[in-house]
Amino acid sequence: MLRALVLGVGLALPLSAFAMPGYWTNSDGQSWNSTYATGHCWRTPGWQKGDANAQCGAYLMPKPKPVATPAPAPAPAPAPKIITLNAVASGKAYMAWNKAKVTPAQAAKLDRELKSIKMADIKDIKITGYTDRTGPKAYNMKLSKERADNVAKYIENHYNIPADKIQTIGMGPADPVVSCPGTKLTPQLIKCLAPNRRVTVEVDMKVTKTVPAN
Question: What keywords were assigned to this record (predicted)?
């Protein structure tokens, strides 16, 4: 009977001692820990580094590779802004002496100078006609207004602008651009006074522009 118990103990010891490979354990499978530090267990003679586990020798286990955090997606580029600005366009047409008709050359000049109004929101247009100092004042006032009206009709029809947005004024010989000597009507005087025979166009408008976002 005694021998059987001894044999039983002899068999039980190896079974419990190696319940955790590489470390000594008790009959309950608990490791025999060192008092040196937590996780330091008593190793068996056959211990190998690969026997380290979370309970015993966790500090010897290979460190898990850090999970790479994907780089955040770049923020989308801000959309450009559409802004509306107040703007002014101006044009000028020079008239032949004693004439009020808009010639093709004068119309082409106006188109070059006023091309920006095609895509604009027109607020109002002011058209002012002038004459030179030759001829009676009353006649010149009428002629200057007729010049302004003819330019207004061209702009109204060519640019499809409502007539109620166009204002015309006749100023006669007022505000001369040049001064020329002599009072007698001669070809030289008519040529000298040519810059005074004009129609000016001033357009008050709003334009839409696309600008980069800040």
Answer: Cell outer membrane, Membrane, Signal
Residue 37 sits at the vertex; the CA angle it makes with 34 and 43, to the nearest 5 degrees, is: 35
The model's pLDDT over 18-75, given as tens digits with 9 standing for 90+, comes to: 577 878 787 777 777 766 655 678 788 888 877 778 778 777 777 778 888 888 888 8
Q: Tell me what pLDDT residue 1 has.
A: 40
What span, in angstroms and rounded, lies between the C-alpha atoms of 128 and 141?
11
- Relative to beta strand 121-129, strand 166-170 is parallel
Joined together, the tokens standing for residue 152 give 């207004």
Confidence of residue 151 (pLDDT cuts 50, 70, 90): very high
Number of structural domains (the chain) is 2
Q: Name, in order, each residue with C-beta under 8 angstroms of 145's C-beta and a sequence gap of 6 or more.
A: 129, 168, 169, 170
- Identify whether residues 97 and 38 lie together within a single domain: no
Task: Find how far residue 141's CA is from the centre of its chain.
Answer: 50
pTM of this structure: 0.61
Strand partners, 205: 87, 122
Question: What secondary structure letter does DSSP report for 31?
Answer: B
Same domain, 38 and 87: no
Instruction: Tell me which residue range forms the domain holding 146.
Output: 81-211
SS3 assignment, position 93: strand
pLDDT at 134 over 80: yes
41 and 102, same domain (yes or no): no
Does residue 69 lie within any of the structural domains? no
